């Protein structure tokens, strides 16, 4: 069923969190409980966004139907529907990240200056769907799936909202919006300010064990861009193979060293 055994544990955890969402949705009416649940789940759902990203680079299941179902659950957590990141991120950003006039996650303004983190966050989050759709014009089949499953996700949200408006707002809609914004915010530190044509010097890396455990090795970002189709579990090994080519300034310092 799984293409890679390494996906079993994270996917099980994500599906259990999905089940928890529906338990809370069906059994809670208190706005205070909803508010607490929303606050508690911000970090887990932020991490789920990273795993959704990995899935759209290397799909989890061998069977297409299972992948589509998983993507609906991912969308309800992260606000990112089927093929949006495939189009916007894989076919767009990964091909264009060295060219800030084309990059779908560009960090430069039109005048060539660098966006601040808030400006970048809003720019990437608010343009994610339009830019993904635009890239999709070159890939009609993927664009069609993107549109169909975005429609399915919206239909599910409408149904959940009709059934219980307050529950749907706090358990699904607010987290989807927050997760999309947080995803854009988190990605601002991946490339912002690295103006170069050298792919080995164009990404910041985070080798923290905790960070990479939570995000599926997303901290090995140069390796991820070097071979973006490689499974997340293989990124540390690939990083070791290419790390001699990565400049020292492309490593993010731990927070306790940033002031030094």
Kindly describe this structure:
The protein has two domains: 5-193, no CATH class; 196-260, no CATH class. The protein is 64% helix and 0% strand. The chain is built from ten helices and no strands. The chain has helices at 8-27, 31-57, 64-78, 84-96, 117-136, 140-163, 165-191, 209-215, 221-226, 235-242. Helix 2 (31-57) packs across helix 3 (64-78), helix 3 crosses helix 7 (165-191) and helix 4 packs across helix 5 (117-136). The longest helix is centred in the N-terminal third of the chain and has 27 residues, at 31-57. The model has no long low-confidence stretch (mean pLDDT 95).
Name the features:
260 residues, mainly alpha, 2 domains, 10 helices
Topology:
Elements (H helix, E strand, L loop, with lengths): L7 H20 L3 H27 L6 H15 L5 H13 L20 H20 L3 H24 L1 H27 L17 H7 L5 H6 L8 H8 L18
Count, helices: 10
Beta-strand proportion? under 5%
Mean of residue pLDDT values: 95
Report how far apart the termini are. Answer: 48 Å
Specify the biggest β-sheet.
none
What fraction, in percent, of the residue positions are helical? 55-70%
Counting structural domains, the number is 2
Computed over alpha carbons, the radius of gyration is 18 Å
- Unreliable segments of 5+ consecutive residues: none
Shape category: globular
Q: Output the structural class.
A: mainly alpha
Strands, total number: 0
Order of helices and strands: HHHHHHHHHH
Pfam families: FA_desaturase (PF00487)
Protein name: Fatty acid desaturase
InterPro entries: FA_desaturase_dom
Keywords: Membrane, Transmembrane, Transmembrane helix
């Amino acid at each position: 069923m799984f293409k890679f055994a390494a996906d079993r544990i994270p996917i099980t955890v994500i599906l259990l969190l999905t089940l928890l969402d529906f338990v809370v949705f069906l059994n809670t009416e208190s706005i205070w409980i909803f508010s607490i649940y929303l606050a508690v789940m911000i970090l887990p759902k932020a991490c789920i966004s990273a795993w959704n990203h990995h899935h759209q680079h290397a799909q989890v299941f061998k069977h297409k139907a299972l992948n589509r179902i998983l993507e609906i659950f991912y969308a309800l957590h992260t606000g990112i529907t089927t093929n949006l990141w495939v189009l916007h991120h894989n076919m767009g950003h990964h091909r264009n990240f060295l060219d800030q006039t084309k990059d779908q996650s560009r960090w430069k303004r039109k005048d060539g200056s660098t966006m601040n983190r808030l400006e970048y966050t809003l720019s990437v989050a608010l343009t994610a769907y339009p830019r993904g759709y635009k890239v999709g014009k070159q890939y009609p089949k993927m664009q069609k799936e993107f549109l169909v499953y975005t429609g399915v996700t919206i239909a599910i949200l409408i149904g959940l909202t009709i059934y219980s408006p307050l529950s749907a707002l706090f358990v699904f809609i607010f987290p989807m919006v927050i997760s999309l914004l947080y995803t854009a915010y988190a990605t601002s530190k991946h490339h912002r300010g690295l103006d170069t044509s050298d792919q080995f010097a164009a990404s910041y890396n985070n080798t923290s064990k905790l960070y990479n455990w939570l995000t599926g090795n997303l901290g090995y970002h140069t390796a991820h861009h070097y071979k973006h189709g490689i499974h997340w579990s293989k990124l540390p090994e690939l990083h070791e193979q290419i790390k001699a080519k990565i400049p020292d300034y492309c490593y993010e310092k731990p927070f306790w060293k940033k002031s030094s």
